[in-house]
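Quick one:
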Amino acid sequence: MEGNMLKRVCLLMMSLAIALMLNEPALAQEPIGPLHTDPAWQAWYWNNPGLAGAPVLNRSEADLNHHWGAGSPDPTISADGFSARWTRYIDVPPGLYRFTATSDDGMRVWVDGRLIIDQWYDHGAITASADRNLDAGHHLVVVEYYESRGEALASLSIAPAAVVIHNWRGEYFNNTGLSGAPALVRDDAEINFDWGTGSPAPGPLGVDRFSVRWTRNLNLPAGSYRFSMTVDDGGRLWVNNHLLIDAWRDQAPTTYTGDIYLPGGAIPIRMEYYENGAGAVARLNWDRSGSSGPGGPPPEATGWLGQYYPNRDLAGGPAITRADPELQFDWGNGAPAPGFPADNFSVRWTRDIYFAAGTYDFSAWHDDGVRVWLDGGLIIDAWYDQAATTHSATRILNAGTHRVQVDYYEHRDKASIAVWASPRGGGPPPPPPPGPGVEILVDNSGPGFQWGGPIRGRKVGYEGIGGNLYWTYNSTLDPVNFARWTPYLPAPGKYEIYVFIPGGYGNSTNVRYRILHDGWRHDRVVNQNWYGNQWVSLGTYRFNAANRGREFVLVYDNTREPYATRTIAFDAIKFVPR
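Output:
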Protein backbone atom coordinates (compact mmCIF):
# COMPACT_ATOMS: atom_id res chain seq x y z
CA MET A 1 0.00 0.00 0.00
CA GLU A 2 2.77 2.39 0.96
CA GLY A 3 4.65 1.35 -2.19
CA ASN A 4 1.68 2.16 -4.41
CA MET A 5 1.22 5.50 -2.67
CA LEU A 6 4.92 6.37 -3.22
CA LYS A 7 4.63 5.43 -6.90
CA ARG A 8 1.60 7.68 -7.31
CA VAL A 9 3.39 10.60 -5.65
CA CYS A 10 6.39 10.15 -7.97
CA LEU A 11 4.16 10.02 -11.06
CA LEU A 12 2.34 13.18 -9.91
CA MET A 13 5.61 15.03 -9.35
CA MET A 14 6.85 14.00 -12.81
CA SER A 15 3.60 15.16 -14.40
CA LEU A 16 3.86 18.50 -12.67
CA ALA A 17 7.47 18.91 -13.82
CA ILE A 18 6.54 18.14 -17.44
CA ALA A 19 3.62 20.54 -17.28
CA LEU A 20 5.88 23.27 -15.94
CA MET A 21 8.39 22.62 -18.71
CA LEU A 22 5.71 22.75 -21.38
CA ASN A 23 4.28 26.00 -20.02
CA GLU A 24 7.66 27.77 -19.60
CA PRO A 25 8.03 30.64 -22.10
CA ALA A 26 10.56 29.95 -24.87
CA LEU A 27 13.66 32.17 -24.93
CA ALA A 28 13.66 34.59 -27.90
CA GLN A 29 16.42 33.82 -30.43
CA GLU A 30 16.49 37.39 -31.86
CA PRO A 31 15.09 40.83 -30.98
CA ILE A 32 11.33 40.90 -31.23
CA GLY A 33 9.86 43.54 -33.53
CA PRO A 34 6.91 43.98 -35.87
CA LEU A 35 7.18 41.64 -38.82
CA HIS A 36 4.52 43.41 -40.89
CA THR A 37 2.46 46.55 -40.79
CA ASP A 38 0.64 46.79 -37.47
CA PRO A 39 -2.94 45.57 -37.89
CA ALA A 40 -4.35 48.67 -36.18
CA TRP A 41 -3.59 52.14 -34.90
CA GLN A 42 -2.93 52.51 -31.19
CA ALA A 43 -5.06 55.48 -30.06
CA TRP A 44 -4.95 57.60 -26.89
CA TYR A 45 -7.50 60.33 -26.04
CA TRP A 46 -7.32 63.25 -23.60
CA ASN A 47 -10.07 65.46 -22.27
CA ASN A 48 -8.00 68.58 -23.02
CA PRO A 49 -6.68 70.04 -26.31
CA GLY A 50 -3.00 69.78 -25.31
CA LEU A 51 -2.43 66.02 -24.83
CA ALA A 52 -1.65 66.90 -21.20
CA GLY A 53 -1.56 64.49 -18.30
CA ALA A 54 -2.74 60.90 -18.42
CA PRO A 55 -5.04 59.85 -21.29
CA VAL A 56 -8.59 58.91 -20.32
CA LEU A 57 -8.98 56.37 -23.15
CA ASN A 58 -6.66 53.90 -24.93
CA ARG A 59 -7.89 51.60 -27.71
CA SER A 60 -6.99 50.01 -31.09
CA GLU A 61 -8.55 51.46 -34.25
CA ALA A 62 -8.49 49.73 -37.62
CA ASP A 63 -8.44 53.02 -39.56
CA LEU A 64 -7.58 56.61 -38.87
CA ASN A 65 -10.64 58.01 -40.63
CA HIS A 66 -12.98 59.77 -38.23
CA HIS A 67 -15.77 62.24 -38.87
CA TRP A 68 -17.40 62.85 -35.52
CA GLY A 69 -19.28 65.98 -36.59
CA ALA A 70 -20.48 67.72 -33.46
CA GLY A 71 -20.14 64.48 -31.51
CA SER A 72 -17.44 62.79 -29.48
CA PRO A 73 -15.06 59.84 -30.10
CA ASP A 74 -16.42 58.09 -26.97
CA PRO A 75 -18.83 58.79 -24.10
CA THR A 76 -15.82 59.30 -21.85
CA ILE A 77 -14.54 62.10 -24.13
CA SER A 78 -16.13 65.56 -24.31
CA ALA A 79 -17.42 66.75 -27.71
CA ASP A 80 -15.11 69.83 -27.73
CA GLY A 81 -11.70 70.57 -26.31
CA PHE A 82 -10.20 67.08 -26.61
CA SER A 83 -6.99 65.73 -28.22
CA ALA A 84 -5.67 62.38 -29.48
CA ARG A 85 -2.50 60.59 -30.51
CA TRP A 86 -2.27 57.60 -32.89
CA THR A 87 0.83 55.46 -33.56
CA ARG A 88 1.43 52.67 -36.04
CA TYR A 89 4.36 50.84 -37.65
CA ILE A 90 4.07 50.43 -41.42
CA ASP A 91 6.14 47.90 -43.38
CA VAL A 92 6.75 49.12 -46.96
CA PRO A 93 8.96 48.45 -49.99
CA PRO A 94 11.30 51.31 -50.92
CA GLY A 95 9.72 54.18 -52.80
CA LEU A 96 7.98 57.51 -52.67
CA TYR A 97 4.89 57.70 -50.43
CA ARG A 98 2.24 60.37 -50.04
CA PHE A 99 0.85 61.13 -46.58
CA THR A 100 -2.50 62.96 -46.77
CA ALA A 101 -4.02 64.45 -43.61
CA THR A 102 -7.50 65.99 -43.33
CA SER A 103 -8.51 67.66 -40.07
CA ASP A 104 -10.76 70.07 -38.23
CA ASP A 105 -9.03 71.43 -36.09
CA GLY A 106 -5.27 70.88 -35.65
CA MET A 107 -3.14 67.92 -36.80
CA ARG A 108 0.57 67.01 -36.87
CA VAL A 109 2.20 63.98 -38.55
CA TRP A 110 5.64 62.50 -37.87
CA VAL A 111 7.44 59.73 -39.79
CA ASP A 112 10.39 58.14 -38.00
CA GLY A 113 10.53 61.13 -35.64
CA ARG A 114 10.53 63.74 -38.43
CA LEU A 115 7.64 66.23 -38.59
CA ILE A 116 6.26 66.16 -42.16
CA ILE A 117 2.82 67.82 -41.75
CA ASP A 118 2.11 70.64 -39.29
CA GLN A 119 -1.40 72.13 -39.20
CA TRP A 120 -1.49 72.74 -35.44
CA TYR A 121 -3.97 75.61 -35.25
CA ASP A 122 -7.74 76.19 -35.23
CA HIS A 123 -9.27 75.81 -38.69
CA GLY A 124 -12.13 74.31 -40.62
CA ALA A 125 -11.75 71.12 -42.61
CA ILE A 126 -8.50 71.30 -44.63
CA THR A 127 -6.27 68.74 -46.31
CA ALA A 128 -2.47 68.76 -46.38
CA SER A 129 -0.10 66.23 -47.96
CA ALA A 130 3.62 65.45 -47.95
CA ASP A 131 5.68 63.08 -50.09
CA ARG A 132 8.51 61.15 -48.51
CA ASN A 133 10.94 58.54 -49.85
CA LEU A 134 11.04 55.56 -47.52
CA ASP A 135 13.60 52.79 -47.35
CA ALA A 136 12.39 49.20 -47.32
CA GLY A 137 11.25 48.06 -43.88
CA HIS A 138 9.43 49.47 -40.88
CA HIS A 139 8.64 53.11 -40.24
CA LEU A 140 6.90 54.61 -37.22
CA VAL A 141 4.03 56.98 -38.01
CA VAL A 142 2.74 59.26 -35.22
CA VAL A 143 -0.33 61.48 -35.62
CA GLU A 144 -1.48 64.09 -33.11
CA TYR A 145 -4.82 65.91 -33.24
CA TYR A 146 -6.88 68.36 -31.23
CA GLU A 147 -10.48 69.56 -31.49
CA SER A 148 -11.32 73.06 -30.32
CA ARG A 149 -15.05 73.44 -31.01
CA GLY A 150 -17.65 72.87 -33.71
CA GLU A 151 -17.07 70.01 -36.18
CA ALA A 152 -14.51 67.30 -35.41
CA LEU A 153 -12.68 65.55 -38.25
CA ALA A 154 -9.41 63.53 -38.30
CA SER A 155 -8.12 61.22 -41.07
CA LEU A 156 -4.80 60.12 -42.53
CA SER A 157 -4.11 58.06 -45.66
CA ILE A 158 -0.78 56.61 -46.86
CA ALA A 159 -0.26 55.52 -50.46
CA PRO A 160 2.56 55.19 -53.02
CA ALA A 161 3.01 58.49 -54.81
CA ALA A 162 3.64 58.82 -58.52
CA VAL A 163 6.68 61.00 -59.22
CA VAL A 164 5.61 63.70 -61.67
CA ILE A 165 8.63 64.76 -63.70
CA HIS A 166 8.55 68.09 -65.51
CA ASN A 167 12.30 68.59 -65.85
CA TRP A 168 15.11 66.11 -65.08
CA ARG A 169 14.24 62.74 -63.58
CA GLY A 170 16.84 62.31 -60.85
CA GLU A 171 17.36 58.79 -59.50
CA TYR A 172 19.60 58.79 -56.41
CA PHE A 173 21.34 55.65 -55.14
CA ASN A 174 23.04 54.90 -51.82
CA ASN A 175 26.06 53.40 -53.62
CA THR A 176 28.57 54.57 -56.24
CA GLY A 177 27.45 52.11 -58.92
CA LEU A 178 23.83 53.15 -59.64
CA SER A 179 22.82 49.65 -58.53
CA GLY A 180 19.60 48.36 -57.02
CA ALA A 181 16.47 50.42 -56.46
CA PRO A 182 16.99 54.19 -56.08
CA ALA A 183 16.74 55.56 -52.55
CA LEU A 184 15.21 58.74 -53.94
CA VAL A 185 13.46 59.76 -57.17
CA ARG A 186 12.67 63.41 -57.74
CA ASP A 187 12.13 66.15 -60.31
CA ASP A 188 15.29 68.28 -60.59
CA ALA A 189 14.79 71.62 -62.33
CA GLU A 190 18.41 71.64 -63.51
CA ILE A 191 21.68 69.80 -62.99
CA ASN A 192 23.57 72.49 -61.13
CA PHE A 193 24.63 71.15 -57.74
CA ASP A 194 27.47 71.89 -55.35
CA TRP A 195 26.65 69.85 -52.27
CA GLY A 196 30.08 70.39 -50.71
CA THR A 197 30.44 67.84 -47.92
CA GLY A 198 26.68 67.55 -47.45
CA SER A 199 24.02 65.22 -48.82
CA PRO A 200 21.66 65.76 -51.77
CA ALA A 201 18.81 64.65 -49.48
CA PRO A 202 19.58 64.19 -45.76
CA GLY A 203 17.87 61.04 -44.58
CA PRO A 204 17.52 58.94 -47.73
CA LEU A 205 21.13 59.65 -48.80
CA GLY A 206 24.46 59.88 -47.05
CA VAL A 207 27.08 62.57 -47.62
CA ASP A 208 29.49 60.22 -49.46
CA ARG A 209 29.41 57.16 -51.73
CA PHE A 210 26.21 57.91 -53.59
CA SER A 211 25.37 58.09 -57.29
CA VAL A 212 22.75 59.75 -59.48
CA ARG A 213 21.25 59.18 -62.90
CA TRP A 214 19.50 62.12 -64.61
CA THR A 215 17.43 61.58 -67.76
CA ARG A 216 15.42 63.91 -69.94
CA ASN A 217 14.31 64.54 -73.52
CA LEU A 218 15.31 68.02 -74.69
CA ASN A 219 13.45 69.62 -77.59
CA LEU A 220 16.29 71.20 -79.58
CA PRO A 221 16.42 72.63 -83.09
CA ALA A 222 18.86 71.06 -85.53
CA GLY A 223 22.40 72.32 -85.16
CA SER A 224 25.80 71.90 -83.57
CA TYR A 225 25.94 71.91 -79.78
CA ARG A 226 28.65 72.03 -77.17
CA PHE A 227 27.89 70.26 -73.87
CA SER A 228 29.88 71.11 -70.75
CA MET A 229 29.93 68.80 -67.70
CA THR A 230 31.60 69.62 -64.37
CA VAL A 231 31.97 66.81 -61.83
CA ASP A 232 33.59 65.88 -58.54
CA ASP A 233 33.97 62.87 -58.62
CA GLY A 234 32.95 60.87 -61.73
CA GLY A 235 30.53 61.57 -64.55
CA ARG A 236 29.34 60.27 -67.91
CA LEU A 237 27.15 61.99 -70.51
CA TRP A 238 25.09 60.48 -73.32
CA VAL A 239 23.58 62.79 -75.95
CA ASN A 240 21.17 61.30 -78.50
CA ASN A 241 22.26 57.83 -77.29
CA HIS A 242 25.91 58.67 -78.03
CA LEU A 243 28.50 58.57 -75.21
CA LEU A 244 29.84 62.10 -75.57
CA ILE A 245 31.88 62.49 -72.34
CA ASP A 246 33.33 59.72 -70.15
CA ALA A 247 35.06 60.89 -66.96
CA TRP A 248 34.13 58.04 -64.60
CA ARG A 249 36.89 58.40 -62.01
CA ASP A 250 37.70 60.08 -58.69
CA GLN A 251 38.79 63.69 -59.22
CA ALA A 252 38.61 67.24 -57.97
CA PRO A 253 36.05 69.50 -59.71
CA THR A 254 36.88 69.20 -63.43
CA THR A 255 35.06 70.51 -66.51
CA TYR A 256 34.77 68.48 -69.72
CA THR A 257 33.27 69.54 -73.05
CA GLY A 258 31.96 67.61 -76.03
CA ASP A 259 30.67 68.78 -79.41
CA ILE A 260 27.95 67.05 -81.40
CA TYR A 261 25.60 67.77 -84.30
CA LEU A 262 21.96 67.07 -83.44
CA PRO A 263 19.20 66.50 -86.01
CA GLY A 264 16.55 68.36 -84.00
CA GLY A 265 13.45 67.20 -82.16
CA ALA A 266 13.23 65.36 -78.85
CA ILE A 267 16.86 64.51 -78.01
CA PRO A 268 17.43 61.97 -75.19
CA ILE A 269 20.02 63.12 -72.64
CA ARG A 270 21.43 60.96 -69.84
CA MET A 271 24.00 62.03 -67.27
CA GLU A 272 25.38 59.64 -64.65
CA TYR A 273 27.38 60.77 -61.63
CA TYR A 274 28.98 59.33 -58.53
CA GLU A 275 30.44 60.84 -55.38
CA ASN A 276 33.11 58.93 -53.47
CA GLY A 277 34.33 61.31 -50.77
CA ALA A 278 34.96 64.94 -49.77
CA GLY A 279 33.31 67.55 -52.03
CA ALA A 280 30.41 66.79 -54.38
CA VAL A 281 29.77 68.79 -57.58
CA ALA A 282 27.57 67.95 -60.59
CA ARG A 283 26.75 70.47 -63.32
CA LEU A 284 25.60 70.30 -66.93
CA ASN A 285 25.31 73.09 -69.48
CA TRP A 286 24.99 73.29 -73.24
CA ASP A 287 24.81 75.91 -75.95
CA ARG A 288 24.14 75.96 -79.66
CA SER A 289 27.23 76.84 -81.69
CA GLY A 290 25.49 77.75 -84.94
CA SER A 291 22.36 77.54 -87.07
CA SER A 292 21.49 77.10 -90.72
CA GLY A 293 19.14 79.03 -92.95
CA PRO A 294 16.10 77.45 -94.62
CA GLY A 295 17.23 74.86 -97.13
CA GLY A 296 20.91 75.25 -96.22
CA PRO A 297 23.18 72.57 -94.82
CA PRO A 298 23.14 71.96 -91.08
CA PRO A 299 26.15 73.49 -89.33
CA GLU A 300 29.05 71.13 -88.80
CA ALA A 301 30.04 70.11 -85.29
CA THR A 302 32.98 72.15 -84.06
CA GLY A 303 35.27 69.25 -83.32
CA TRP A 304 36.05 65.57 -83.08
CA LEU A 305 35.14 63.50 -80.05
CA GLY A 306 38.49 61.96 -79.09
CA GLN A 307 38.64 58.93 -76.78
CA TYR A 308 42.21 58.04 -75.73
CA TYR A 309 43.13 54.55 -74.47
CA PRO A 310 46.39 53.57 -72.69
CA ASN A 311 46.72 50.46 -74.89
CA ARG A 312 46.96 49.66 -78.63
CA ASP A 313 43.61 47.88 -78.85
CA LEU A 314 41.03 50.54 -77.85
CA ALA A 315 40.29 48.19 -74.94
CA GLY A 316 38.45 49.03 -71.73
CA GLY A 317 37.28 52.53 -70.95
CA PRO A 318 39.11 55.58 -72.33
CA ALA A 319 41.52 57.29 -69.96
CA ILE A 320 40.90 60.67 -71.63
CA THR A 321 37.83 61.96 -73.47
CA ARG A 322 38.05 65.40 -75.02
CA ALA A 323 36.94 67.54 -77.93
CA ASP A 324 39.68 67.88 -80.55
CA PRO A 325 38.93 70.82 -82.88
CA GLU A 326 40.80 69.16 -85.77
CA LEU A 327 42.24 65.72 -86.41
CA GLN A 328 45.85 66.54 -87.15
CA PHE A 329 48.56 65.70 -84.66
CA ASP A 330 52.31 65.28 -84.78
CA TRP A 331 53.31 64.22 -81.28
CA GLY A 332 56.79 63.08 -82.31
CA ASN A 333 58.22 61.10 -79.42
CA GLY A 334 55.85 62.78 -77.00
CA ALA A 335 52.44 61.91 -75.57
CA PRO A 336 48.97 63.26 -76.44
CA ALA A 337 48.59 64.62 -72.90
CA PRO A 338 50.57 64.87 -69.66
CA GLY A 339 50.50 61.61 -67.71
CA PHE A 340 49.47 59.65 -70.80
CA PRO A 341 51.89 57.10 -72.35
CA ALA A 342 53.98 58.21 -75.34
CA ASP A 343 53.92 54.69 -76.82
CA ASN A 344 51.43 51.81 -76.97
CA PHE A 345 48.26 53.90 -76.99
CA SER A 346 45.21 54.16 -79.26
CA VAL A 347 42.56 56.74 -80.04
CA ARG A 348 39.06 56.73 -81.54
CA TRP A 349 37.71 59.94 -83.07
CA THR A 350 34.11 60.38 -84.27
CA ARG A 351 32.40 63.31 -85.92
CA ASP A 352 29.23 64.08 -87.89
CA ILE A 353 30.17 66.17 -90.96
CA TYR A 354 27.95 67.75 -93.57
CA PHE A 355 29.00 67.09 -97.20
CA ALA A 356 27.52 68.53 -100.35
CA ALA A 357 26.73 65.94 -103.01
CA GLY A 358 29.84 64.88 -104.91
CA THR A 359 32.95 62.71 -105.03
CA TYR A 360 35.46 62.99 -102.21
CA ASP A 361 39.01 61.77 -101.60
CA PHE A 362 39.51 60.73 -97.96
CA SER A 363 43.15 60.73 -96.87
CA ALA A 364 44.93 59.63 -93.70
CA TRP A 365 48.55 60.46 -92.88
CA HIS A 366 49.70 58.34 -89.98
CA ASP A 367 52.44 56.60 -87.99
CA ASP A 368 51.51 53.78 -86.96
CA GLY A 369 48.13 52.13 -87.75
CA VAL A 370 44.84 53.66 -88.85
CA ARG A 371 41.32 52.65 -89.89
CA VAL A 372 38.72 55.05 -91.28
CA TRP A 373 34.97 54.36 -91.39
CA LEU A 374 32.39 56.35 -93.33
CA ASP A 375 28.78 55.84 -92.23
CA GLY A 376 29.79 52.53 -90.66
CA GLY A 377 31.69 51.21 -93.70
CA LEU A 378 35.47 50.64 -93.53
CA ILE A 379 37.13 52.72 -96.30
CA ILE A 380 40.80 52.81 -95.16
CA ASP A 381 42.41 49.84 -93.41
CA ALA A 382 46.10 50.19 -92.56
CA TRP A 383 46.15 48.65 -89.09
CA TYR A 384 49.86 47.79 -88.80
CA ASP A 385 53.17 49.33 -87.71
CA GLN A 386 54.62 51.76 -90.25
CA ALA A 387 56.50 55.01 -90.66
CA ALA A 388 54.54 58.14 -91.60
CA THR A 389 52.50 57.18 -94.67
CA THR A 390 49.44 58.49 -96.50
CA HIS A 391 46.54 56.22 -97.47
CA SER A 392 43.50 57.38 -99.44
CA ALA A 393 40.06 56.24 -100.53
CA THR A 394 37.45 57.78 -102.85
CA ARG A 395 33.72 57.79 -102.19
CA ILE A 396 30.63 59.32 -103.82
CA LEU A 397 28.40 61.02 -101.25
CA ASN A 398 24.84 62.26 -101.22
CA ALA A 399 24.22 65.67 -99.69
CA GLY A 400 23.73 65.40 -95.97
CA THR A 401 25.41 64.64 -92.66
CA HIS A 402 27.75 61.64 -92.60
CA ARG A 403 29.38 59.93 -89.63
CA VAL A 404 33.20 59.65 -89.87
CA GLN A 405 35.11 57.43 -87.43
CA VAL A 406 38.90 57.18 -87.21
CA ASP A 407 40.74 54.54 -85.16
CA TYR A 408 44.47 54.97 -84.61
CA TYR A 409 47.20 53.24 -82.65
CA GLU A 410 50.80 54.13 -81.81
CA HIS A 411 53.30 51.35 -81.11
CA ARG A 412 56.64 53.03 -80.54
CA ASP A 413 58.92 55.89 -81.68
CA LYS A 414 57.15 58.75 -83.45
CA ALA A 415 53.40 59.31 -83.40
CA SER A 416 51.43 61.27 -85.98
CA ILE A 417 47.94 61.26 -87.44
CA ALA A 418 45.97 63.58 -89.76
CA VAL A 419 42.73 62.87 -91.63
CA TRP A 420 41.02 65.09 -94.19
CA ALA A 421 38.54 64.95 -97.09
CA SER A 422 38.91 66.81 -100.41
CA PRO A 423 36.16 67.11 -103.04
CA ARG A 424 36.65 66.35 -106.71
CA GLY A 425 35.06 68.31 -109.53
CA GLY A 426 35.32 71.83 -108.17
CA GLY A 427 33.25 71.58 -104.99
CA PRO A 428 34.92 73.55 -102.18
CA PRO A 429 36.25 71.63 -99.20
CA PRO A 430 34.80 72.69 -95.88
CA PRO A 431 35.79 75.41 -95.14
CA PRO A 432 36.28 76.76 -98.67
CA PRO A 433 39.86 77.85 -99.52
CA PRO A 434 40.40 81.56 -100.15
CA GLY A 435 41.21 82.80 -103.60
CA PRO A 436 44.71 83.88 -104.75
CA GLY A 437 46.03 87.04 -103.16
CA VAL A 438 43.63 86.83 -100.19
CA GLU A 439 44.92 86.77 -96.64
CA ILE A 440 44.26 83.43 -94.96
CA LEU A 441 43.24 83.96 -91.33
CA VAL A 442 43.30 81.15 -88.79
CA ASP A 443 41.64 82.30 -85.56
CA ASN A 444 41.55 80.45 -82.25
CA SER A 445 37.76 80.04 -82.53
CA GLY A 446 37.67 78.81 -86.13
CA PRO A 447 38.66 75.87 -88.35
CA GLY A 448 42.37 75.24 -88.58
CA PHE A 449 43.08 75.95 -84.91
CA GLN A 450 43.83 73.09 -82.53
CA TRP A 451 44.36 73.18 -78.78
CA GLY A 452 46.44 70.42 -77.22
CA GLY A 453 46.74 69.54 -73.58
CA PRO A 454 44.29 69.57 -70.66
CA ILE A 455 41.14 71.58 -71.29
CA ARG A 456 41.41 72.99 -67.76
CA GLY A 457 44.72 74.60 -68.78
CA ARG A 458 42.98 76.62 -71.49
CA LYS A 459 41.67 79.99 -70.26
CA VAL A 460 39.41 82.30 -72.27
CA GLY A 461 39.84 86.04 -72.72
CA TYR A 462 37.30 88.28 -74.44
CA GLU A 463 39.38 90.53 -76.65
CA GLY A 464 41.51 90.27 -79.77
CA ILE A 465 40.50 89.02 -83.22
CA GLY A 466 36.92 87.74 -83.20
CA GLY A 467 36.38 89.07 -79.68
CA ASN A 468 37.99 86.12 -77.88
CA LEU A 469 41.31 84.38 -77.36
CA TYR A 470 42.87 81.58 -75.34
CA TRP A 471 45.63 81.94 -72.81
CA THR A 472 47.51 79.79 -70.33
CA TYR A 473 50.26 79.97 -67.74
CA ASN A 474 53.74 78.97 -68.88
CA SER A 475 55.61 75.81 -68.04
CA THR A 476 59.41 75.80 -67.81
CA LEU A 477 61.13 72.93 -69.68
CA ASP A 478 58.49 70.27 -70.30
CA PRO A 479 55.47 71.37 -72.37
CA VAL A 480 51.98 70.93 -70.97
CA ASN A 481 49.79 72.82 -73.44
CA PHE A 482 50.23 73.69 -77.09
CA ALA A 483 48.36 75.37 -79.95
CA ARG A 484 48.52 74.77 -83.68
CA TRP A 485 47.34 76.97 -86.57
CA THR A 486 46.93 75.10 -89.88
CA PRO A 487 45.93 77.16 -92.96
CA TYR A 488 43.99 76.15 -96.06
CA LEU A 489 46.40 77.63 -98.61
CA PRO A 490 45.01 78.14 -102.14
CA ALA A 491 48.26 77.44 -104.00
CA PRO A 492 51.99 76.81 -103.49
CA GLY A 493 54.10 79.89 -102.95
CA LYS A 494 55.59 82.28 -100.45
CA TYR A 495 53.52 83.55 -97.54
CA GLU A 496 54.37 86.06 -94.85
CA ILE A 497 53.12 84.95 -91.44
CA TYR A 498 51.72 87.43 -88.91
CA VAL A 499 50.69 86.64 -85.34
CA PHE A 500 48.26 88.89 -83.47
CA ILE A 501 49.45 89.82 -79.98
CA PRO A 502 46.50 91.17 -77.89
CA GLY A 503 46.72 93.94 -75.35
CA GLY A 504 46.34 91.63 -72.37
CA TYR A 505 46.79 88.00 -71.32
CA GLY A 506 50.26 87.56 -72.87
CA ASN A 507 53.37 88.73 -70.99
CA SER A 508 55.87 85.92 -71.61
CA THR A 509 59.19 87.16 -72.98
CA ASN A 510 60.14 83.88 -74.69
CA VAL A 511 57.28 82.46 -76.78
CA ARG A 512 58.64 80.20 -79.52
CA TYR A 513 56.62 80.04 -82.75
CA ARG A 514 57.60 76.97 -84.79
CA ILE A 515 56.86 77.22 -88.54
CA LEU A 516 56.74 73.95 -90.48
CA HIS A 517 56.67 74.57 -94.23
CA ASP A 518 57.68 72.80 -97.45
CA GLY A 519 59.63 70.15 -95.52
CA TRP A 520 61.50 72.74 -93.42
CA ARG A 521 61.25 73.99 -89.86
CA HIS A 522 62.01 77.48 -88.60
CA ASP A 523 61.65 78.86 -85.08
CA ARG A 524 60.92 82.48 -84.22
CA VAL A 525 60.92 83.74 -80.61
CA VAL A 526 58.53 86.60 -79.74
CA ASN A 527 58.44 88.69 -76.57
CA GLN A 528 54.67 89.03 -76.16
CA ASN A 529 55.21 91.56 -73.39
CA TRP A 530 56.50 94.11 -75.95
CA TYR A 531 53.30 94.26 -77.99
CA GLY A 532 49.66 95.24 -77.47
CA ASN A 533 46.90 94.68 -80.05
CA GLN A 534 49.45 94.39 -82.87
CA TRP A 535 50.18 92.09 -85.81
CA VAL A 536 53.78 90.87 -85.54
CA SER A 537 55.56 89.35 -88.55
CA LEU A 538 57.23 85.98 -88.14
CA GLY A 539 58.85 86.20 -91.57
CA THR A 540 58.16 84.95 -95.11
CA TYR A 541 58.33 81.23 -95.95
CA ARG A 542 57.58 78.97 -98.90
CA PHE A 543 54.65 76.53 -98.56
CA ASN A 544 53.84 73.74 -101.00
CA ALA A 545 50.12 73.71 -100.00
CA ALA A 546 49.88 70.06 -101.06
CA ASN A 547 49.88 68.38 -97.69
CA ARG A 548 47.93 70.44 -95.25
CA GLY A 549 48.66 68.12 -92.35
CA ARG A 550 52.40 68.88 -92.49
CA GLU A 551 52.42 72.68 -92.79
CA PHE A 552 51.40 74.75 -89.78
CA VAL A 553 52.53 77.07 -86.97
CA LEU A 554 53.01 75.52 -83.55
CA VAL A 555 53.50 77.03 -80.08
CA TYR A 556 54.33 75.10 -76.91
CA ASP A 557 53.99 76.63 -73.44
CA ASN A 558 57.53 75.71 -72.22
CA THR A 559 59.16 79.16 -72.24
CA ARG A 560 62.16 78.40 -69.94
CA GLU A 561 60.83 81.03 -67.53
CA PRO A 562 60.01 80.10 -63.90
CA TYR A 563 56.92 77.92 -63.80
CA ALA A 564 53.54 79.74 -63.92
CA THR A 565 55.11 83.20 -63.63
CA ARG A 566 54.11 84.28 -67.16
CA THR A 567 51.09 84.02 -69.42
CA ILE A 568 50.92 83.15 -73.13
CA ALA A 569 48.17 84.43 -75.43
CA PHE A 570 46.86 82.34 -78.36
CA ASP A 571 44.84 84.37 -80.85
CA ALA A 572 44.85 84.63 -84.65
CA ILE A 573 47.59 84.02 -87.22
CA LYS A 574 47.32 85.17 -90.85
CA PHE A 575 49.16 84.03 -93.96
CA VAL A 576 49.66 86.75 -96.59
CA PRO A 577 50.72 85.74 -100.16
CA ARG A 578 53.99 87.38 -101.26
